Amino acid sequence: MSTLKKHNTAILGAAFLMATSAVGPGFLTQTATFTESLMASFGFVILISIIMDIGVQLNVWRIVAVSKKRAQEIANLVFPGVGYLLAFLIIAGGLAFNIGNIGGAGLGMQSMFNISPITGALISGVIAVAIFLGRETGPMMDKFAQLMGFILIVLIIYVVFKSDPPLAEAVSKTIMPDKIDAVAIVTLVGGTVGGYITFSGAHRLLEAGVSGEENLSSVTRSSVSGILIASVIRVFLFLAVLGVVSQGFSLDPANPAMSPFEYILGNAGKVIFGMVIWAASVTSVIGAAYTSVSFMTNFHPFIEKHKRYFIIGFIVISTMVFATIGKPAQILVLVGTLNGLVLPIAMVIILIAAYRKNIVGNYKHPIWIAVFGWLIAIVMSILSVMTIAEYLGLS
């Protein structure tokens, strides 16, 4: 493969890795649940989250690229030891969510082939491990993420077409909503660029050698593309669910994301949803494992040298925990809440690093991008505290 082709494949692959890492079983469930509760006004929440997501990506990816360092290395240079704290939060969150992602893949297999979720999870774990057994792990991961992302978009567009959503109302309420939900904004931003997700593509580009000031235009394009891919999937899923709930249909609380597929297409909808949630889950498994291990590499040179086997081990542990214990709901809720705090912490570290010569050299970080980042860090801090207070019953 030519150098230019490798470069372009890495840019697209990083965007899809980030996007498909974001689009997991939680993403599907959250989108369906919030659409039912907020109806067309959920479009406003999606719009605000897209703007905030782009601000996060622009700052994080550019500083990782210019510094040619992973996020935890940057954090340790900003505040000694903080990189280890950030790595711990990312790895703990990645492992907890990966158990849920494996569970989602198992449910997808159950919907498609009528096998038990545990058997489906074990098969999915083997497929995810196989991605990292080849010699060219990076390109293989890029191609798989792109293929699954394409399948997700095509299947969800088909369901949108069948559900006939009220498009005019969706557009008007996106601009002038009936109600605004702070919890929904935190959940969407945290679920799209929180925890390990925003670093997945940035670390992938770093590994592929797409870094330095000379590659900033490519890095920027890839970072925004990742958000747009994830957002296209969310918007189409929102429209599909809106088309169903606006007809007076209530979603099944046990599986809200599958309800519109089944309502519109019957048994065929169950199979199509199985394909959607499987593709979403297995790519999130890969993204979470890859990114979590990239945060371990500065602990010891042995981990960097044998990174592929640590990624495989991460997937195997996640699969075994789900197969033997099941999804640890309480841990998932706790880590999910903490993820809302990880984002502003990571953003503050990145924004301080943007003006440290020992990290970025002579690079001049655009003031408007930095201001954008600080606003997001402040807003997300306030909204995260409000959300945690609500969870704890303090508000």
What are the defining features of this structure?
395 residues
Descriptive report:
- With 395 residues, the chain is mostly helical.
- Helix content is 80%, strand content 0%.
- It has 18 helices and no strands.
- The radius of gyration is 20 Å and the shape is globular.
- The mean pLDDT is 87.
> Over the alpha carbons, how many angstroms does the gyration radius reach?
20 Å
Please outline the major beta sheet.
Answer: none
Count of extended strands = 0
What spatial form do the alpha-carbon principal axes imply? Answer: globular
Brief synopsis:
This protein has 395 residues and is an all-alpha fold.
Q: What topology emerges from the helices and strands here?
A:
Layout: H1 3-22, H2 25-38, H3 42-67, H4 71-78, H5 82-113, H6 117-131, H7 137-163, H8 167-175, H9 182-193, H10 197-207, H11 216-245, H12 259-265, H13 267-294, H14 301-305, H15 307-324, H16 329-353, H17 357-360, H18 367-391
